[in-house]
Design brief:
The protein is of the alpha/beta class. It has twelve helices and 15 strands. The strands form three sheets. Strands 3, 4, 5, 6, 7, 14 and 15 form a seven-stranded mixed β-sheet that branches. Strands 10-9-8-11-12-13 form a six-stranded parallel β-sheet, sandwiched between helices. The longest helix has 28 residues, at about 1-30. The radius of gyration is 23 Å and the shape is globular. It binds NADP nicotinamide-adenine-dinucleotide phosphate (NAP). The site of NADP nicotinamide-adenine-dinucleotide phosphate has 30 residues, from helix 6, helix 7 and strand 9.
Amino acid sequence: MKRILKWIFRIVLVLFILAFVFVFVAYWRSTNDCDRLTAAQGDKMKAIVYCDYGVANLKLAEIAKPTPTDDQILVKVHAASVNPLDWHFIEGTPKIMRAMGVGLRKPKDTRLGVDFAGTVETVGKNVTQFKAGDEVFGGRDGAFAEYVCPRADRAVTLKPANITFEQAASINIAGITALQAVRDKGKVQPGQKVLINGASGGVGTFAVQIAKSFGADVTGVCSTRNLDMVRSLGADHVIDYTKEDFTKSGQRYDLILDNVGTQPLSGFRRALQPKGICVMIGGGGPNDGGLIGPLGRPVKALLLSPFISQKMGMLMAELNKKDLTILADLMQSGKVTPVIDRTYPLSQIAEAIRYLEQGHARGKVVITVE
Ligand SMILES: NC(=O)c1ccc[n+]([C@@H]2O[C@H](COP(=O)([O-])OP(=O)(O)OC[C@H]3O[C@@H](n4cnc5c(N)ncnc54)[C@H](OP(=O)(O)O)[C@@H]3O)[C@@H](O)[C@H]2O)c1
C-alpha cells in the first residue's frame, strides 16, 4: 500500500511539474505580429494597435491598408464606437480570456474595435448587395482604423439616411445585444413589465427604446443624473439606484435585463414573477470578478436553474446582418434613436477607453476617424 501511494505521489508530482513547464513556456512564447504589422510596405492607413496589454500601450500606427477579397467590401471608416468588449481585450481581463486564446503574455490579435460606420470605396467581384459610395454601418474586427473590409454577407448594412455616421457607428454591438435580449432571450410580449438595470449605458439606452417598441411597460434603473434622459427614451418608470433598491420594492417583473451585475441572484428572484426571466448581459469593471470576471454569476444561475421556476441565463450576442437591418429599420422609423455621450478623435482612443472603463457612460462613446 505504501509503495502504491509513493508511486501515485511521484506521478502527480511529475504531472504537476510538466503542467508548470508547459504554462511557463506557453507564457513566454506568447507573442504577436506587432513588428510585422507596423513595418508593412505599400498603401498605408492609420489604425490603433496594441502590442502589449494595457490602455497605456494603445498606439496610433501606420499599417497596411487592407484589400478586399472577392466577397468583401472596402469601407472608409468615418466613425467607430467603443464597447466594454474593447477594454476586455485591451486589459486582457477577465484573465481566463488570455488562456482561452486571446494571448497569455501579449495579445495575439493586435488590432482593436468592432463597430464602424463609413462609405463603401470598392467592392469585391462577387459582391452584389453594395456599390461604391453606399453609406454603411456594422461590425468588423479592427474598426479603430481608417479602413475595414467586412464580408458583404456578414454584419454590415445600409445606413438609414436620417442618422449620422456617429449614431450609426454606435449601433452594432449595443443595439444587437439589446434586441436579442428583449426579443430572443426575454421573449417580451406587449404589456409585460420589463426592468432594465443599467438603463443609461450603451446597451441600456437601446434596450429601453426596443422594449418600448415591443409594447412593454418599461422601468429603467439608473443614477440620479440620468433619470430624465432614461424617461425621455420612453421608460414608463425610472428608479434611482442611489436611493432605492428595486429588488426590495415589492414590484415584480416579467423580464429583467441586467447590464450591471451588482445585485445578488436572490435579489433578482425576489423581483421576478414566478415564471419571469432574467437575462444577464454583463457588468463589472476591468479588475472585477477575479480570474473569471462576470462569468461567475451565470454559472451560479445555471446551477440554480433546475430548482427554480424562473429562468435566469446569460446572453452572448451574435452579430448578424438580419438583426442589423431590423435595427436600421427601427432607426429609419424613428422608434429608436442612438444616444451619444462623448466623441473622441481616433488619436485620443486611450481617453475614450479610460472614460468607458469607469462604467458611467450615458449612451455610447464614439470615435471619429478622419
Ligand atoms: N453578453 C453580451 O453579449 C454583451 C454584449 C454587449 C455588452 N455586454 C456587457 O454588458 C455590460 C453593459 O454594457 P454597456 O455597453 O451598456 O456598458 P456602459 O455603456 O459602460 O454602461 C454602463 C451603465 O451602467 C450603469 N450603472 C453603473 N452602476 C450601476 C448600478 N449600480 N445600477 C444601475 N446602473 C448602473 C451606468 O449608469 P450610471 O452612470 O447612471 O451609474 C452606465 O450607464 C458590460 O458589462 C458589457 O461587457 C455584454
